Amino acid sequence: MDRHQWDERYRGDALVWTSTPNQFLVSEAVGLPAGRAVDLACGEGRNAVWLAEQGWRVTGVDFSSVGLAKARRFAELWGVEVTWVESAVQDWAPPPEGFDLVAVLYLQLPQPERTAALDVAASAVAPGGTLLVVAHDEDNLTRGYGGPPSADVLYSVADVTRVAEAAGLTVERAERVVRVVDTDAGPRDAVDTLVRAKRPT
User: Fold this and answer.
1) Tens of pLDDT along 124-164?
2) Is residue 18 situated within a structural domain?
3) Which has the closest alpha carbon to 151: 92, 104, 110, 101?
4) How far, in Å, CA of 106 to CA of 42, rounded?
5) Which residue, 20, 104, 116, 194, is most buried by CB atoms nearer than 10 A?
6) pLDDT tens for residues 2-14?
7) Can you say how many angstroms the Cα of residue 46 is from the centroid of all Cα atoms in its chain?
């Protein structure tokens, strides 16, 4: 989907996604000291807002102006400050000081744009900082629930790990994880890629 399609998807007052943060962001970030964080492909801002609530100084980046407008309203509603930047992830230029946490959650891009975006994300990690990538795994297409129906935008753990290591990061966790989704027919399992990596100090 291009930015115009995402703009259309985000139109209207209701949130497309839930207002609660991603469960893997919560579990992976909860033990980190709050510093500078960036949420790449932040959409309507639920994860950026949660990070700001935890004391992080947060930047949210997304190419959808409509999504960012909703994110701003969401942040105002919760009384937190977030710096919002309108840009495609692969075109975004991180500040030279980098970030203590770079979160990339469910960024749906085909190749080669995906690798370009992950390269940018990895380059934004400051010394001692953490990169967290969570995405719909390619295995979800055959044995998981929901997610994109196109294999072109699905991830593999090996691909993300390769980008992280090429950027000089140390991979601390790299695995397929199961996310339980509540549906009208009961709970269903979705399969995600999760990679957490750290830049040496």
Assistant:
1) 999 999 999 999 999 999 999 989 999 999 999 999 999 99
2) no
3) 110
4) 9
5) 104
6) 555 544 554 655 5
7) 11
